[in-house]
Design goal:
By secondary structure, the chain is of the alpha/beta class. It is built from 15 helices and 20 strands. It has a seven-stranded mixed β-sheet with strand order 12-13-14-11-10-16-17, with helices on both faces. Helix 9 links the parallel strand 10 and strand 11. Bound molecules: NADPH dihydro-nicotinamide-adenine-dinucleotide phosphate.
C-alpha cells in the first residue's frame, strides 16, 4: 500500500499490507481482548481514553503534518482535527458511565425491571480519508468506552494515519487487541463481516460502499451504522445578514477543500437577496488562497487524489452542459498536484449532476427561490438527508424552518458541524444510525432487559 503526496503526485511511503493470516490473527486477538476489556469498569476504560487524549494533545503537530502530507488538508484545519479527537476521547471518558448506566423502568409491581447496556464484541470500522483521524476517533472513543474492541479498515490512501492511530492507542496503554488497524483493500472486507468473531460494522464513505457493506451486514444479521454522503442545503432567507452569511457560506462549502459529507453544497437563496448574496459569496470564494497545505496562509489545498478531481471536473462539466452558469473557477489547476479551482455555479438545473449527486470538492451551486415554501421544497428535493442549514435574523422563523428539513443535522445561523455531545447521522440515502453523544455509544450495545422477581 502506497501513500501519495497530493501536492506533488509523488509517492511518500510504502506499507506492507496484511494478508489473510494476519487478518485471522487480528480477529483472534480481538476476540481474546474483548473477553477482558468488556469486563473492565467503565472508569478504567475511561482512564485509558483520557491518556489517549493527552497523547493526542502532545502530538498535535506530528499528526497534523501526517494528515496534511497524506491527503492535503490545510495544516491549521489538521491541527484542529487532532484536538477534536482529544476532545471526543475526553468526552466519553467523562460521560460513558452516565450514558450506559442501568435504566430502571417501573413495570410489574412484583418485579424489579431494568435495561442494562452491554458491549457486543469486536466491531469493524471502515473509514474514509477526508478526516482521517476524526472519522476513526468518533468510532473509537464511544465503542472502546462501551467495552467493545475495534478493528479499523482505513481508506487505502491514508495508511500512515491508520497506523499512527493504532500506535497512539497502544502508547496510551490500551491492552493488545483492543484496537487494531488492518491494512487491506476493500475487496477483503466481506469475509471479515462474515466472520463469527465480528459483532458489527460501521462505515463512513460513499453511498455505493455503504450499500455494499449494509447488504453484507444484513445478510449476516449483524448491526451496522452507515454514515454516507450528503448534499446539504444552505438556505438564505430574505432577512439574513448577507455579508456574514456569505462569509460563513464560503467556509461551510470550502473547508477541507470541500471534501466533507456535511459541507454546504446547494445554496438556496431568496430572490430578494439573491444578487447581493451571489456577489458577496463569489467575492469570499475568490479571496481564498489556494496553495501548499503546509503553508499557514493556505485556505484550500489539493484534492486528496487525482481520480477524485477527475470525478468532480466531470460533474461540473455535465452540470454546465445541462445549462448551469459558471461564475468563477470551473477547471483543474495546471501543474503538479490534484488542485481544483474553487468554483461557483448558478442557474443549476434541478436534474443536473451538481443538484442530484454529492459534489465532493470545491464547488458550490446557487439556486434562486421566490419564497420559503419553494426554498424548503428545493432543499428537500434530494436523495440525501445528512445536514442542512438556514440563515435568517429571526430565530423563531429559523427554527420553524429547520424543523421542516428532511435531514439528520439541522442548523440555524451556523454551519453544519459535528460535536461529541450531539448525535450525528443522516436519513434517506445518507445512511442510518447515529454517531457521537448518548445515541452513538448505544449503537453497538445489547440493550438487555433484566426482570428480577
Ligand atoms: P469510498 O466510499 O469508496 O471509501 C470509503 C471507505 O470505504 C474506504 O475505506 C474504502 O476503502 C471503503 N470501501 C469502498 N468500497 C467498499 C466496499 N465495497 N466494501 C467495503 N469497503 C469499501 O470513497 P472514495 O474514497 O472512493 O470517495 C468517493 C466518493 O465517496 C467521494 O467523492 C464522496 O462523494 C464520497 N465520500 C463520502 C465520505 C463521507 O464522509 N461521507 C467520505 C469519503 C468519500 P478503499 O480506500 O480501500 O477503497
Amino acid at each position: 500500500m502506497e501513500s501519495i503526496n497530493p501536492v506533488t503526485g509523488e509517492p511518500l511511503d510504502e506499507y506492507e499490507t496484511h494478508d489473510t493470516d494476519d487478518i485471522d490473527t487480528a480477529l483472534s486477538n480481538a476476540e481474546t481482548a474483548f473477553d477482558d476489556w468488556s469486563q473492565q469498569s467503565i472508569a478504567h476504560r475511561g482512564t485509558l481514553l483520557q491518556k489517549t487524549a493527552e497523547r493526542l494533545d502532545e502530538r498535535v503537530e506530528e499528526y497534523a503534518e501526517l494528515m496534511t502530507r497524506e491527503m492535503g488538508k490545510p495544516i491549521e484545519q489538521a491541527r484542529a482535527e487532532v484536538k477534536k479527537c482529544a476532545w471526543v476521547c475526553e468526552y466519553y471518558a467523562e460521560t460513558a458511565a452516565e450514558h450506559l448506566q442501568d435504566e430502571v423502568i417501573e413495570s410489574d409491581p412484583d418485579a424489579r425491571t431494568l435495561v442494562s447496556y452491554e458491549p457486543l464484541g469486536p466491531i469493524l470500522a471502515i473509514m474514509p480519508w477526508n478526516f482521517p483521524f476524526w472519522q476513526a476517533f468518533r468510532f473509537i472513543a464511544p465503542n472502546l468506552a462501551a467495552g467493545n474492541v475495534g478493528l479499523l479498515k482505513h481508506a487505502s490512501n491514508v495508511p500512515g494515519c491508520a497506523l499512527a492511530i493504532e500506535a497512539v492507542l497502544e502508547d496510551a496503554g490500551l491492552p493488545e487487541g483492543v484496537f487494531q488497524t488492518l491494512l487491506i483493500s476493500s475487496s477483503e472486507v466481506d469475509p471479515i463481516i462474515e466472520d463469527d468473531r465480528v459483532a458489527g460494522v460501521t462505515l463512513t464513505g460513499s453511498e455505493g460502499a455503504g450499500r455494499a457493506v449494509g447488504r453484507k451486514a444484513g445478510e449476516q444479521l449483524k448491526p451496522s451504522v452507515l454514515e454516507l454522503g450528503g448534499s446539504d442545503p444552505f438556505v438564505v432567507l430574505d432577512d439574513a445578514p448577507i455579508e456574514a452569511t456569505a462569509e460563513r457560506g464560503a467556509f461551510a462549502r470550502l473547508q477541507n477543500t470541500g471534501q466533507s459529507c456535511i459541507a454546504a453544497k446547494r445554496f438556496i437563496v431568496h430572490d430578494a437577496v439573491y444578487d447581493e448574496f451571489v456577489d458577496a459569496f463569489v467575492d469570499e470564494v475568490e479571496a481564498l488562497t489556494v496553495g501548499d497545505p503546509m503553508d499557514e496562509a493556505t485556505d484550500i489545498g489539493p484534492m486528496a487524489r487525482p481520480d477524485l478531481r477527475e470525478d468532480l471536473d466531470d460533474q461540473i462539466e455535465r452540470t454546465l452542459d445541462a445549462g448551469a452558469e459558471l461564475l468563477t473557477g470551473g477547471e483543474a489547476v495546471d501543474g503538479e498536484g490534484a488542485y481544483y479551482q474553487p468554483t461557483v455555479l448558478t442557474e443549476v438545473p434541478s436534474d443536473s449532476a451538481a443538484a442530484t449527486e454529492e459534489t465532493f470538492g470545491p464547488v458550490a451551486s446557487v439556486t434562486r427561490v421566490s419564497d420559503e415554501q419553494e426554498a424548503i421544497e428545493v432543499a428537500n428535493d434530494t436523495d440525501f438527508g445528512l445536514g442542512a442549514s438556514v440563515w435568517t435574523s429571526d430565530l423563531d422563523r429559523g427554527e420553524a424552518f429547520a424543523r421542516r428539513f428532511e435531514a439528520g443535522l439541522c442548523f440555524v445561523n451556523e454551519l453544519v458541524k459535528s460535536d461529541p455531545r450531539l448525535p450525528f447521522g443522516g436519513v434517506k440515502n445518507s445512511g442510518y444510525g447515529r454517531e457521537l453523544s448518548r445515541h452513538g455509544i448505544r449503537e453497538f450495545v445489547n440493550a438487555k432487559t433484566i426482570w428480577v422477581q
